[in-house]
């Protein structure tokens, strides 16, 4: 009996390893842009990104993933972060037909709310921005930001609170990212021509360098290159019946965010879309 428990434990442990959890920077990521501005902390379990007058920087996953859940804990630029943008996103890197799922954290003057912009690109078509003001100070502590993705639904969440949902609406002729694996990226850069109050608030370089911190990387999904059958396997946990739509608890939280913290939704922006795009009419 004791032996059986031990063997089951070993199997569970090996399955855990296959899923690559938990992951470290060295195991799963690489520098994509300006390694001199990127520093490992806590023995490689964390990373610090630096933005100064010379450069921003970025890192990305070594592999791509097709469906699954990716998350990391991030502590955003503290103090006067106006004009800075920290991003956490997935991208298929296929130019005009790219799929992309974006979190962009738009800095602000001290004491003003951080804004999270999300966007979804499918087959090269984006222009689906939504913006939410965070209900806490994301520079005071680490919070978990996650992208969940299966054949039916994509969910962006902050500390397990869904802030954005993009459903598979192929039946309405709306493309859904389902065939291109995506890599996971994060970057910190200057974008004071648009980021804060539409570009009115400029970056204050006297406050540089600006720092963002990352830890607890978790990449679960079908790794590419990897077994080709993985992405279509219904036995992956993220394809399970419980994950085909928001749970009642998730739905309640999502409605709370939309009612209290959403400040922009392309679906209701008549200056851009006189008729709301079809995915908007399908309901949240
Ligand atoms: C910054 O703060 C202003 C004033 O509170 C707010 O209107 C805006 O949504 C905030 N975020 C950005 C990115 O400008």
UniProtKB/TrEMBL annotation:
Q: Where is the active site?
A: 100, 104
Q: How is it modified after translation?
A: Contains at least one intrachain disulfide bond essential for its enzymatic activity.
Keywords tagged on the record: Apoplast, Cell wall, Cell wall biogenesis/degradation, Disulfide bond, Glycoprotein, Glycosidase, Glycosyltransferase, Hydrolase, Secreted, Signal, Transferase
Subcellular location per the Swiss-Prot or TrEMBL entry = Secreted, Cell wall; Secreted, Extracellular space, Apoplast
Primary subcellular site in the record, as a coarse category: secreted
Q: What is its EC number?
A: 2.4.1.207
Query: What is an annotated GO biological process for this record, any one?
Result: cell wall organization
CC per GO annotation: apoplast
Give the protein's function.
Catalyzes xyloglucan endohydrolysis (XEH) and/or endotransglycosylation (XET). Cleaves and religates xyloglucan polymers, an essential constituent of the primary cell wall, and thereby participates in cell wall construction of growing tissues.
**What name does the UniProt record give this protein?**
Xyloglucan endotransglucosylase/hydrolase
- Recorded source organism is Salvia divinorum (Maria pastora)
